[in-house]
Structures are given as structure tokens and as C-alpha cells.
Amino acid sequence: MSASRMLGSAMRCMPLAQYAMQPGAGYRPLRALGTTRTVHDTSADDINKNRAPAIRRFWRNVSVGEKDGGLVVLLDARPVKTPGGTPMRISARQPALAWLVAGEWESQKEFLGAHSLPLTSLVSRAIDGLSDANVRADVITKLLKYFHTDSVCLHDNHPRVLAELQQRHYAPIAAWARSAYGIDIKTTTDMFVLRQTPEAADRLRAVVEGFSDLKLAALERAVMTAKSFLIGLALVEQRVSVEDAACAALVEATAQTQLWGELENAHDLDNAAMRQILGASACAALNA
User: Fold this and answer.
1) Which of 46, 90, 154, 180 has the highest count of CB atoms within 10 angstroms of its CB?
2) Chain segment 156-185, per-residue pLDDT in tens
């Protein structure tokens, strides 16, 4: 089966690190595009000098193979490597993920797309970064900071449209977390006084510490995107769909749109990007 067919359209344009492939050596991060100077101080020549070079597609065939009890994505029989140079091995429990990653590479056209390897990025993050115990501990601590000021726990009384959206999308997630983990989750109308109990935070820390490196990478991406620990957790634990997670993460933006109208094109792009990123996280977390 063609790998590109298995890659959902929502996975193709997620903003991620850029990669440059080198034959026989995997790929490496490219420099960030653009410049720190303002537009009126920047000439076209300056921009071009700072722009990462386009990487031409050099492989013809993409496939999935078995190696060392796991799965690898092959470009003309050469395994894809992480930015750190480690062959990218995917668990044998996740054949769908392996084909989705393969689909990312097969879908490349003449040049490698700068933002078109979302799942490759997540797998690389798990292998190169989260396999280190110190990095894992640091990431978990940072993610739990979102729990103490979680948007899911903020409930406004007005405007009415915002209060209704919060009740519709936030309340079920908070109720699930209370029931699933046996913890007290406090809600408030004042974000400046919101603080969850140490017992609740410790319980959630223990849960996340049990995640595999890949599932933690998916949680990290989801939390950073949704700006909510509980939304990200519910997503990777398969308690909410990608659509429900996106709707919860976009509650305030949705309320503003209903009150003041939509900024042409901008909101559509934001909404699509949100779903693409959360979709990648959900796929990576399956059977991880």
C-alpha cells in the first residue's frame, strides 16, 4: 500500500523543526528561516542570505522494514536517522505509525518541505531527547506547571458565550481527570488564585512518569500546543478526540470570533494548525 495514502492531510503542514537530508547520514536541523531585524531594515539579499537552503529530494522509494525487533523507515533501503544520527526505530506495536512516518517522506515533492515531517519530529524527539532521564524529569516538571494554571480549570461568568463554551468543553475533561485519577481538581473564575493541590500534582506526575518516551513526546507537543496539561493528557490517553481537544484549546478564540467576528484567513489557519499538531500527537501516542 502506498505510504502517502496512509498519511492524513492534517499531518502535512504542522510547524516543526526543519530537516536537511544527507545521503547515508540521515538528516540534520536547518537554521531557522528569516532574520531578527525588522522588515523595513532588511533587504531581499539579506533575507536570502539567512534563508535555509532548499533540500532536493534525492530518494525514489520509501518503504518500511524490520530491524532489531522494531520497524524502520527506509529511503532507497537506507534507514531514516534522527538529527542525532541514531537510526529511527519504531516499536513493532506501532505499524501504523511507521507507515505514517513513511508517508511523510513519500509525500515530499521536488524539495523537502520545511514543515512536513511532524511525526518524524516526534519520534526523533523521543529518541534523541527524552531517552535521557534528566531531560525527561525536566520536561515533566515543566509540563506540570501548566496544570497549576490550566485553562480547563478557569470558568468565567461572562460573557455568556465564553461561559457556555467553557462549560461545554472544559467541564467533561476536568470530570474525567477527577474520576480517572482520584484527584481533586479546583476550578475558579480568578486565574491569579488558581493553584492545584500538591497531592493532585504528585498523582499526575506519577502517571506521566510511567509514559514511554514517545508518549511523553506526544504529551509535550500537545500540552505546548493547547496550553493545557489536562487537554493534552486527555488526548494522549484517548479520552477525547482530536476535534474535541482542538475545540477545548480554542475556546477563547471561538468566543472572541462569535462576539467580534472572524479575522479573514487568520483564524482558519490557526484552527487548521491546531488540529494538525494535535492529530500528530494523537497518532504518535497510540500504543506507545
Assistant:
1) 90
2) 888 999 999 999 999 999 999 999 999 999
Evaluate if residue 258 carries a pLDDT over 50.
Answer: yes
Residue 23 has pLDDT above 60, yes or no: no
Joined grid coordinates for residue 234:
486527555
Query: What is the tens place of the pLDDT at every residue in 201-251?
Result: 999 999 999 999 999 999 999 999 999 999 999 999 999 999 999 999 999
Q: Would you say the C-alpha torsion 136, 138, 142, 145 has a positive or negative sign?
A: positive
**Burial grade of 229 (CB within 10 A; 0-12, 13-18, 19 or more):** buried
Phi/psi-derived region of residue 85, left when phi > 0, alpha when psi is between -120 and 50, beta in every other case: left
Residue 38 CA to residue 103 CA, distance in Å, equals 37
- Compute the C-alpha angle 103/70/233, nearest 5°: 70
Question: In whole angstroms, what is the distance from residue 243 CA to residue 241 CA?
Answer: 5
Give the span between the Cα atoms of 152 and 169, in whole angstroms: 8
- Please name the amino acid found at residue 151: S
CB 242 within 8 A of CB 84: no
